[in-house]
């Protein structure tokens, strides 16, 4: 999934730009993390992108998260203050919304996401060791 082009010139100018970073993870771990977050209290997961090939998921997180993101097996791309326009159309070409804006909070809390990704990795490791 390409995260360098996050502005879509086709987006109506009336849609507000929201600053956020994008945490990209392998799809299997990301889907497990989404399940973990959705089972938690409240609305713990924000909008989530998936690439058309199905290889990765991208969690929208608050701006500035990229500066301190250190979770192995994932990357966090900053928007460098350019903002991200949240509309029904995905902001990254070749992607689609798994959880679109409006059905989720504006961004996933990075600390909550970090815990969910860790739990997801442990779950996957345990499942794989049973084979």
Question: What structural keywords apply?
Answer:
single chain; 131 residues; two-stranded antiparallel ribbon; 2 helices; 25% helix; 21% strand; globular
Which residues sit in consecutive blocks of at least 5 with pLDDT less than 50?
1-17
Largest sheet entry: 5 strands, antiparallel
- Strand numbers in spatial order across the main sheet: 5-2-4-3-7
Q: How much of the residues is beta strand, in percent? A: 15-25%
The total of helices stands at 2
- Roughly how many Å is the radius of gyration? 14 Å
Cα shape: globular
Report the mean per-residue pLDDT as an integer: 79
In sequence order, what are the helices and strands, one letter per element? EEHEEEEEH
Polypeptide structure, described:
- This protein is 25% helix and 21% strand.
- The chain is α+β, with helices and mostly antiparallel strands and 131 residues long.
- Strands 5-2-4-3-7 form a five-stranded antiparallel beta sheet. A two-stranded antiparallel ribbon has the order 1-6.
- α1 (27-39) crosses α2.
